[in-house]
Design a protein that fits this description.
Elements: H1 2-12, H2 19-33, H3 39-55, E1 57-58, E2 63-71, E3 77-81, E4 88-90, E5 103-112, E6 118-129, E7 134-144, E8 148-155, E9 165-168, E10 176-184, E11 190-200, H4 204-211
Parallel strand pairs: 9-11
Antiparallel strand pairs: 1-5, 2-3, 2-5, 3-4, 5-6, 7-8, 7-10, 10-11
Helix pairs in contact: 2-3
């Protein structure tokens, strides 16, 4: 079962899309996330990540900061330095398992893109303090192989890019709105234990109870 699960996650980890479609998806993800970034700032950050690896001239120096990570459903995010200043763009794949609200340590560098504009881009090196202790969302079931299946939570908050694997459903059924305590680390990286069940996720009563 463990081998089947590993093959499933590797096979479905990333799906290839054309660059324009992927870029549109990232823009949409941030709009839905509620992160306070206007379209020009986001476009600038996305252009930086796309161009840096092809034609940018990076500086040798890296600078270390600490700050709050703001995530997105698209998998990328920004670190707001505790000392103030411009937020640092963190591309997908360099977030080191951090989720929205975590207090993190990161390093970043400045570079000049092919249009001659100064950019910054970074990577998270350490999660200093976890920001969230629970998540509210819909309990889902994912099947793999002939008989394999596992439960996970699809968060209501679009700032969360990871869907926690459920290790204890607490009697909840697929399709129900739940509250679950987050467990960091371990075999799954991010897992959850259901602590409250609100009812069917598409019902008015469940959604009302979940926000109280």
């Amino acid at each position: 079962m463990k081998k089947d699960f590993t093959r499933f996650t590797k096979r479905n980890k990333h799906k290839r899309r054309d660059k324009d479609a992927a870029r549109r998806e990232l823009l949409r993800a941030v709009r839905e996330s509620g992160v306070a970034y206007d379209s020009l700032k986001l476009k600038s950050a996305l252009d930086a990540g796309r161009r840096a690896r092809v034609s940018a001239t990076p500086h040798r120096d890296e600078y270390e900061i600490r700050g709050i990570f703001s995530g997105s459903r698209g998998g990328f995010g920004f670190v707001s330095p505790e000392a103030g200043g411009e937020d640092i763009f963190i591309p997908e794949g360099r977030c080191r398992g951090a989720i929205d609200g975590d207090f993190v340590r990161a390093v970043y560098h400045s570079f000049t893109d092919r249009d001659g504009r100064e950019r910054t881009e970074g990577r998270i090196t350490e999660i200093i303090e976890y920001g969230r202790t629970f998540v509210i969302g819909t309990l889902k079931r994912e099947r793999y192989g002939r008989r394999g299946a596992y439960l996970y939570i699809l968060p209501d908050d679009n700032r969360l890019s990871l869907n926690p694997t459920v290790t204890d459903a607490g009697g909840a059924k697929e399709g129900e709105k739940v509250k679950a305590e987050l467990v960091r680390g371990g075999a799954f990286g991010l897992s959850a234990r259901v602590s409250a069940v609100f009812g069917k996720s598409d019902s008015r009563e469940a959604n009302y109870a979940a926000i109280l």
